[in-house]
Write a structure and sequence with these properties.
Bound molecules: zinc ion
GO biological process, one term: long-chain fatty acid biosynthetic process
Catalytic activity: an N-acylsphing-4-enine + H2O = sphing-4-enine + a fatty acid
Helix content: 25-40%
Protein name: Neutral ceramidase
Shape: globular
Number of helices: 25
Keywords: Endoplasmic reticulum, Glycoprotein, Golgi apparatus, Hydrolase, Lipid metabolism, Metal-binding, Secreted, Signal, Sphingolipid metabolism, Zinc
InterPro entries: Ceramidase_alk, NEUT/ALK_ceramidase_C, NEUT/ALK_ceramidase_N
Radius of gyration: 29 Å
Strand content: 15-25%
Largest sheet: 9 strands, mixed
Length: 932
């Protein structure tokens, strides 16, 4: 109940434009008093969700398999026509056998608001049944047969025998085909994604904790990407990858509440994992513990809402897309996308241990490839360890950094390669409506070849289109931009997930002093004793966008390579274990010399002095020194409650000198987490270890090996064929985890290992327990729950007061146009136009765009070809002065090499807040220009 009213008001307050969200909020409010099932029905009427038959969902319970939803292909190639026609009357199924059955199957599926039926049509009589439906069908058949047989029996014993033989033959046939279908498609797989870009102005960016790093535009959009894998008649798991710095406990809690309201116990804390890619270029303020929201002036409701909404919608989409499919696994080394940024700490690990590895960072990328039985490849998720710090601590454009870029590239690559194949019959209504609204496909330039020449006529044509001037726009018409028109089309989802990136930097050229250009000091990463002068250099140095592109491109190319050559099919059970632990006081048994054991403890969270020094990716991260104290009202609010650590705490953390005793700071609410989730997800021979922080390279290796040893010990079914990956920054965030030896060196990662020197040992011990429970098929009890601090959150970021333009100027008018005078632009050159604009926080334009490049098609129709999710187009927003109600939007388009020659213009969308009244949407275009 609480979450419904909360989400409703949240949506109202933030997404004025979002008609879907508004109507959902309205529905939620009216539904709040109704049962979960009636809520589900109401929700399915929301325009943002694919339509399905409006019948109440079957109640689902956790003890059941991901049920009601499992379709099973039953193909009866030879005698099927006979069989179905025989079946039809007796079983009460009439009509054309397969087709009628398919309708029935789709009802079952849509009962859980699943995909609208996926009927195979072809030469074979083929249909698909829900598994429960199939059982029902067989039961009905047996019942029918017994009735028939018993009536036969009255007359003729021989007839009965014949019928009986026939029955067994038929049942054998059905079951055999069931099994064939099952072995052909061991799983149901579903993919989904949704925009989580968030506020592109005024909000501090998450990661570097640089109070001056405030969002002011978008390079490309952030996404939540989800997959669901379900075992027919078995369990299911959800994995979500966020283009965000990390997962957040309060986000996870609220997403789980929404999933519970929507699906009952189907998706819960045990089988849902939410992981962050660790971009340092997304809006902050969505975490609940104080230390992570100091620089964002506390909690930012808008950041939080867009992430919770986006995760929910990506999971709903994945759920609705569940279809029979296979999963393949592959792995390979990517050598040039990460270096160790704390090599002196790594060197403190035992030489014998280090000698087992060729590199001081993990180079392996693991990928899973999802192949729909009918649509072919529908997505891939991979795990690879490298920090999301290709964009620097002074960047202000929202970006997914190198992993977000890689995902963008791979999804575009898939689109160009025709993945997924468009279903010939799935959801034809949606496809029809898609064609009605979308006009031309997204990247026109890639699809319609045009002569690479431009004549004087086109230049003349371009010069005849002046800037349009700003005009008001109905909010709802903005929602139909490039990507939102593709909502119901099967799409390829590719995620680049984070792993044990704790000490891995993407700035692979090494660290240099910005004054002398000499390498930094090896042990302390300083220049003449000062950490703030030492920076890591990316491969595009000094251009951070280029570094991001290159590191993203390397991951993308490796992923495509592994994707194309993936041949090991994932087979086996789906399973999971999850528990919450109190990391502030865990007893840990550690080995000391000669095999003897000692019991030690973790400590309440605390951060060391080196934490304030930051890293070579962002010196001075979380720098609480005077610069940040000054002028930060949130800090002022809480600084008086800073705590001096007691003797026990100091000893527990030694040799870490405590700068911030965050685990014992509780005012105005908890500064750091104590209760943390750990989770194992198993999909056949793939085992994903979900950890709530940034493991260093060696810490990750130790954990993976320890779990692998447990899982392959004894008569384990894993039988050595097992692949263990570590999913970092998952479900919540608790900073770093180093090895005991690295901790002694107290570099940034050691100083940020919150629970003392035995933090890693605690993880290993507890993960071993989870793994043991997994193979023993035992449940894992949990005695803890993380706190829900949403109601206590304090946010001091002021809202938008109002927007204005100079007298005589409208929102959307051009203030600085593309150069006129028959100007043309070559590929690779940059075109700019600046518009009178308004604060992007008025409407996040989620799943929409603030910027478009339009191309003249024919003589008088403009089609969108690039939007603000494209690498080539940047949306930059600015105010002339800090408190000014006036603002500008500059659209900056670097003409891609593969852009078609022709006539183009730039278009800006925005939403302004008047002094009185509601948000008003506007648009305007630049003058046209020719591209040759
Ligand atoms: Zn990090």
């Amino acid at each position: 109940m609480e979450q419904w009213s909360e989400s409703a008001s949240a949506v109202n307050s933030t997404n004025e434009r979002d008609a879907g969200a508004r109507s959902r909020a309205r529905i939620l409010q009216t539904a709040a008093s109704e049962s979960p099932d009636s809520r589900a029905v109401l929700l399915s009427e929301s325009p943002h969700y694919p339509r399905g038959p409006r019948r109440a969902r079957r109640p689902l319970s956790f003890s059941k398999p991901c049920p009601g939803r499992f379709a099973l292909s039953v193909s009866v190639p030879v005698v099927a026509a006979n069989a179905t026609s025989l079946l039809s009357p007796g079983a009460g199924l009439s009509g054309g056998g397969g087709e009628r059955s398919a309708t029935r199957g789709s009802e079952f599926l849509a009962g859980g608001r699943g995909p609208v039926g996926f009927t195979a049509r072809g030469s074979r009589v083929s249909s698909e049944f829900d598994i429960l439906g199939l059982h029902e069908l067989i039961n009905k058949f047996i019942f029918w047969f017994l009735m028939e047989a018993s009536s036969c029996l009255c007359y003729q014993v021989h007839g009965f025998r014949l019928s009986k033989i026939w029955l067994w033959l038929f049942l054998a046939l059905v079951l055999q085909n069931c099994n064939l279908a099952l072995s052909a498609s061991p799983y149901m797989v579903g993919m989904g994604s949704f925009d989580i870009t968030g506020p592109a102005a005024d909000v501090n960016m998450m990661g570097y904790a640089n109070i001056e790093q405030i969002a002011s535009g978008i390079h490309f959009r952030l996404k939540s990407r989800a997959f669901i894998v379900a075992e027919p008649n078995g369990k299911c798991v959800v994995f979500v990858n966020l283009d965000a710095c990390m997962a957040s406990q309060i986000v996870t809690i609220k997403v789980l509440e929404r999933l519970k309201a929507r699906y009952g116990d189907l998706y819960n804390e045990n089988n849902v994992a939410i992981s962050g890619i660790h971009t340092h270029a997304g809006p902050g303020g969505y975490l609940q513990y104080v230390v992570y929201i100091v620089t964002s002036l506390g909690f930012v409701r808008q950041s939080f809402n867009v992430i919770v909404d986006g995760i929910e919608r990506s999971i709903v989409e994945a759920h609705n897309n569940l279809r029979p499919g296979k999963i393949f696994l592959n792995k390979g080394d990517l050598l040039d996308a990460g270096v160790n940024r704390s090599p002196s700490a790594y060197l403190n690990n035992p030489a014998e241990e280090r000698s087992k590895y060729q590199y001081n960072v993990d180079k392996e990328m693991s990928i899973i490839k999802f192949v729909d039985d009918e649509l072919g490849p529908v997505g891939s998720f991979n795990w690879f360890a490298t920090h999301g710090t290709s964009m620097s601590r002074t960047n202000s454009l929202i970006s997914g950094d190198n992993k977000g870029a890689a995902a963008r590239f791979m999804e575009d690559w898939a689109e160009q390669n025709g993945f997924p194949k468009q279903s010939t019959h799935a959801n034809s209504d949606n496809l029809r409506s898609l064609h009605k609204t979308s006009g031309l496909p997204r990247r026109v330039s890639n699809i319609i070849p045009e002569p690479n020449e431009i004549n004087d006529d086109l230049i003349q044509l371009a010069s005849s289109y002046e800037a349009s001037g700003g005009r008001r726009l109905a909010g709802s018409s903005i929602t139909r931009r490039i990507r939102s028109t593709q909502q119901n089309k099967p799409k390829f989802v590719s995620a680049f997930c984070q792993s044990n990136c704790g000490d891995v930097s993407p700035n692979v050229l090494g660290t240099f002093c910005i004054d002398t250009h000499h390498p930094c000091d090896f042990n302390h990463s300083t220049c003449n004793g000062k950490n703030e002068l030492c920076y890591g250099r990316g491969p595009g140095y000094p251009n951070e966008f280029e570094s991001t592109r290159i590191i993203g491109n390397r991951q993308f190319l490796k992923a495509v390579d592994l994707f194309n050559s993936a041949s090991e099919e994932i087979q086996g059970k789906i399973d999971y274990r999850h528990t919450y632990l109190d990391f502030s006081q865990l007893e840990v048994n550690v080995s000391i010399s000669a095999g003897s054991q000692q019991t030690v403890k973790t400590c309440p969270a605390a951060m060391g002095f080196a934490f304030a020094a930051g890293t070579t990716d962002g010196p001075g991260a979380f720098d609480f020194r005077q610069g940040d104290v000054k002028g930060n009202p949130f800090w002022k609010l809480v600084r008086n409650v800073l705590k001096t650590p007691g003797k026990e705490q100091v000893e527990c953390h030694a040799p870490k000198p405590i700068l911030l005793d965050t685990g014992e700071m509780k005012e105005p609410y908890d500064w750091a987490p104590a209760i943390l989730p750990i989770q194992i997800i198993r999909i056949g021979q793939l085992v994903i270890l979900c950890v709530p922080g940034e493991f260093t390279t060696m810490a990750g290796r130790r954990l993976r090996d320890a779990v692998k040893n447990v899982l392959t010990s004894g008569n384990s079914e894993f039988n050595k064929n097992i692949h263990v990956v570590l999913a970092g920054l998952t479900n919540t965030y608790s900073q770093y985890i180093t090895t005991f030896e690295e901790y002694q060196i107290q570099r940034y990662e050691g100083a940020s290992t919150l629970y003392g020197p035995h933090t890693l040992s605690a993880y290993i011990q507890e993960f071993q327990k989870l793994a043991t429970a997994l193979i023993a098929n035992r449940e894992v009890p949990t005695n803890f729950q993380p706190p829900d601090l949403l109601d206590r959150q304090i946010g001091l970021l002021p809202g938008v007061v109002f927007d204005s333009t100079p007298p005589g100027v409208k929102f959307g008018d051009v203030s600085s146009d593309v150069p006129g005078g028959n100007s043309t632009f070559n590929k690779g050159s940059t075109v700019n136009a600046t518009f009178y604009s308004a604060c992007p926080r008025n409407d996040l334009l989620t799943e929409g765009t603030f910027a478009l490049v339009e191309k003249l098609d024919g003589s008088n129709s403009w089609v969108p070809v690039y939007d603000d999710d494209d690498w080539s187009l940047r949306f930059k927003w600015s105010r002339p002065a800090r408190l000014s109600p006036r603002s500008f939007a500059t659209l900056e388009w670097t003409v891609p090499e593969d852009a078609a020659s022709g006539v183009y213009r730039l278009r800006h969308f925005g939403a302004s807040k008047p002094m009185f009244g509601s948000i008003r949407h506007f648009t305007g275009t630049s003058r046209a220009f020719a591209v040759r």
